[in-house]
Design goal:
Shape: elongated
Distance between the termini: 45 Å
Number of helices: 2
Length: 69
């Protein structure tokens, strides 16, 4: 079984910031040379969340508004 682990540190500029990790995850998968399987994105921090969603118009605004309520 082939596996690859990478740790990435992210710097934020403000509270409630959204960071699109799609390209970074795709690069890790490409470097892994794994052709079948799954990619796991995990955040061990209690002040961070990983959300999976289509990049659709208005998503970030809608999600931000929900978090503010």
């Amino acid at each position: 079984m082939r596996m690859r682990f990478e740790n990435h540190d992210l710097d934020t500029e403000r509270c409630g910031e959204f960071i699109d990790l799609t390209d970074e995850v795709a690069k890790v998968v490409e470097r892994s040379e794994v052709r079948e399987g799954m990619a796991v994105v995990y955040s061990p921090h209690t002040t961070c969340a990983v959300v999976i969603n289509e990049r659709e118009s208005g998503f970030i605004e809608d999600f931000s508004a929900m978090l503010d309520t």
